[in-house]
């Protein structure tokens, strides 16, 4: 099993009031970066990088990064810069980018070059992941929503070819044209870096991932619809003539570990405070129906069980679905909303959030593994309003207690990850890290 | 036509008139259509990719639809027709005139975008709820409610939503203008009528002003109280202006 760590790197800034219990609503298209303080940004980028290094020390196999644009809930607008730095300052962990938003790249060959560079600097530790992005990403970099899916696929084909076919060659596609493809760099991993496809609601993407035998990582969706989506992946795999195993299945979920149950309960609550992902249950943010509804972005007939009710937010139990919201919250200094508070206990019950001491957290993780049978898991922690200290306490306990227990569990439940059993051909992957470990 | 099926509504008798709809699409035979049909043989196609006309997968900009509409005029054997473009349809009509002045006998733009405004911005339908965008087309909230009702017909919303996809395919960026038009319009000698609402909240006044100063044979009629959807708010007035414009004799050319 591949065990990874993840945080969205929220922009935590008490002055901007997009933080903490007194937080203003985060609604797309209604906030200005006039509130952005680069000094705070600087400290946070460095904090999050330091926490990744510590995650490696604590025994995580992977650190996962994501990319969003124009929003305080994720500082990963230029995720490849963070990944590049991690490539140099870490030694063993896989660097998982889940993922670059392919359709918004007007020059995906440049992305192929960046990723190959990261792969070389990290000596083959890059796991590349590609997403279609939300409406926010399409608007932020002004990519046409109706061509999102076509551009995703063509950019993928181009990057793969640039990595695997000796240049120079020409590329005359529908959306991208190059007269000379011959990047003077090639990925360290051959034939190309491990690819994972993260997602939430697009049936097209699951089908496409299964056809390419890429592991599919569901992002913090509720257990039952997630299970159904994985069933769909397995169905497609069967029709493609192979059997999908745990190596094809990844799951990201929120887990915070702490020293006492009381501290864990109080700290876990911070998932719902501060500038957390607006799509998530109990979040203080408001989803913009306009951005969710950009023309042609998602074919509404092709939603997964997680998205059938409409949008990602609903699949994650977000209660503000469809409301236009009040971006300019007139009472930013009010107390925390009771709704978020009530939502928290409910989320602890339905596994949307897992928090506790190692003793109570481990059986819950086991339940998730038994239900979904993933070969890759990513613990989402240190988010919302959590401080550096909160993150570090949890990371330490992951290292001392949780990770060893989860490894045993994975062996017992027979859940090999994508490095133990290649998603492409079911053989063990001979990675540089694996070679090193056997030395 | 070009492998596409074009659906159109036709009515009336008289001089042939091609009417190009707004980016919201054709919503049926309206009062404005009815007013026009007393003097014209009105042809109202669904633009390719809108309503029930086939979507041209290859189309990437409004000019592509202008090419198709010129082909449509030829197919229907409509020569020197009056071409009336409502909103976005006028953007396409302006392109048609730059490409084939012979085919466009008279040109009318009603509340149309197409030029980059030197002042102000074209309201962006992509970043607001579409119902709110359409409402902004009226002079005020009360007028919008009078025309659309308290609750907008869900079928209408669905049609707008559908049509918006084609708009995003061809006019996402640059949004509702073409930087080539200002260079090409001075050669268009087609008599042109510009009808804009004085209370237009979607198109800034710099756009009709620029059309008027760039087109050599253009006349601007500002309907002071009207909003962006001039022909919906003032169907008789606009139809009357179109009629007078279409019947006026060809101006003496000042070709040099």
Rg over C-alpha atoms of chain A, rounded to the nearest angstrom: 21 Å
Annotated CATH homologous superfamily of chain A: Luciferase-like domain
How many independent structural domains of chain B? Answer: 1
Name the CATH architecture of chain A: Alpha-Beta Barrel
- Give the helix/strand class of chain B: alpha/beta
Strand order of the largest sheet of chain A: 1-2-3-4-7-8-9-11
What does the average pLDDT of chain B come to? 94
* Largest pleated sheet of chain B: 7 strands, mixed
Low-confidence stretches of chain B: 251-256
CATH superfamily of chain B: Alpha/Beta hydrolase fold, catalytic domain
CATH architecture of chain B: 3-Layer(aba) Sandwich
So how many helices of chain A?
14
Termini Cα gap of chain B: 37 Å
Tell me the number of structural domains of chain A.
1
Radius of gyration of CA atoms of chain B, rounded to a whole number: 17 Å
Tell how many strands the DSSP assignment of chain B holds. 7
Q: Strand content of the residues of chain B, in percent?
A: 15-25%
Oligomeric nature of the chains: heterodimer
Low-confidence stretches of chain A: 308-342, 433-439
């Amino acid at each position: 099993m591949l065990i990874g760590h993840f945080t969205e790197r929220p922009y935590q800034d008490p002055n901007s009031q997009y933080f903490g219990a007194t937080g203003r609503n985060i609604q797309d298209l209604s906030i200005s970066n006039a509130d952005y303080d680069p000094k705070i940004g600087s400290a946070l980028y460095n904090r999050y990088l330091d926490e990744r290094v510590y995650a490696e020390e604590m025994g995580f196999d992977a650190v996962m990064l994501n990319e969003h644009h124009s929003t305080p809930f994720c500082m990963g607008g230029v995720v490849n810069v963070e990944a590049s730095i991690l490539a140099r300052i870490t030694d063993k962990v896989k660097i998982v980018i889940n993922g670059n938003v392919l359709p918004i790249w007007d020059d995906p060959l440049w992305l192929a070059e960046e990723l190959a560079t990261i792969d070389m600097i990290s000596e083959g530790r890059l796991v590349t992941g590609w997403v279609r992005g939300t409406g926010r990403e399409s608007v932020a970099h002004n990519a046409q929503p109706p061509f999102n899916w076509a551009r995703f696929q063509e950019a993928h084909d181009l990057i793969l070819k640039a990595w695997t076919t000796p240049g120079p060659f020409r590329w005359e596609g529908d959306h991208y044209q190059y007269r000379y493809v011959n990047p003077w760099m090639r990925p360290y991993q051959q034939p190309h870096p491990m690819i994972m496809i993260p997602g939430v609601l697009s049936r097209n993407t699951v089908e496409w991932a299964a056809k390419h035998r890429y592991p599919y990582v569901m992002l913090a969706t509720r257990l039952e619809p997630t299970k159904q989506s994985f069933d769909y992946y397995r169905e497609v795999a069967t029709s493609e003539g192979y059997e999908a195993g745990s190596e094809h299945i990844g799951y990201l979920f929120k887990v915070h570990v702490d020293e006492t149950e009381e501290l864990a309960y109080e700290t876990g609550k911070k998932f719902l405070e501060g500038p957390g992902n607006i799509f998530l249950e109990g979040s203080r943010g408001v989803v913009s129906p306009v951005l969710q509804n950009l023309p042609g972005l998602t074919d509404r007939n092709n939603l997964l069980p997680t998205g059938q009710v409409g949008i990602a937010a609903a699949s994650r139990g977000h209660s503000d679905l469809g409301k236009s919201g009040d971006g300019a919250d007139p009472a930013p200094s009010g107390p925390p909303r009771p709704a978020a508070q009530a939502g928290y206990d409910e989320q602890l019950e339905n596994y949307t959030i897992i928090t506790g001491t190692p003793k109570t957290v481990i059986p819950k993780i086991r339940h998730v593994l038994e239900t979904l049978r993933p070969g890759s898991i990513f613990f989402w922690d240190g988010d919302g309003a959590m401080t550096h200290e909160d993150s570090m306490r949890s990371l330490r306990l992951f290292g001392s207690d949780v990770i060893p227990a989860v490894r045993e569990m994975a062996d017992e439940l027979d859940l090999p990850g994508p490095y133990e059993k290649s998603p492409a051909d079911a053989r063990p992957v001979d990675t540089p890290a694996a070679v090193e470990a056997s030395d | 036509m070009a492998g596409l099926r074009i659906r159109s509504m036709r009515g009336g008798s008289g001089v042939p008139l091609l009417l190009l709809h707004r980016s919201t699409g054709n919503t049926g035979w309206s009062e404005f259509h009815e007013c026009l049909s007393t003097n014209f043989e009105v042809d109202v196609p669904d633009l390719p990719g809108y309503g029930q006309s086939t979507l041209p997968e290859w189309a990437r900009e409004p000019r592509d639809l202008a090419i198709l509409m010129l082909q449509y005029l030829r197919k229907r054997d409509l020569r020197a027709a009056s071409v009336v473009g409502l909103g976005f349809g006028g953007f396409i009509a302006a392109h048609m005139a730059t490409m084939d002045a012979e085919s466009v006998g008279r040109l009318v733009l009603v509340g149309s975008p197409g030029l980059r405004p030197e002042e102000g911005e074209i309201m962006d339908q992509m970043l607001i709820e579409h119902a709110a965008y359409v409402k902004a087309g009226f002079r005020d909230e009360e007028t919008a409610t009078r025309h659309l009702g308290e609750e907008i017909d869900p079928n209408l919303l669905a049609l707008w939503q559908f049509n918006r996809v084609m708009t995003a395919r061809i006019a996402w960026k640059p949004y509702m203008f073409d930087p080539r038009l200002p260079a090409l319009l001075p050669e268009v000698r087609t008599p042109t009528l510009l009808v804009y609402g004085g209370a237009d909240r979607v198109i800034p006044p710099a756009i009709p002003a620029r059309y008027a100063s760039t087109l050599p044979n253009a006349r601007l009629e500002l309907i002071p109280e009207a909003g962006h959807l001039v022909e919906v708010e003032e169907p008789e007035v606009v139809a009357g202006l179109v009629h007078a414009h279409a019947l006026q004799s060809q101006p003496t050319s000042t070709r040099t």
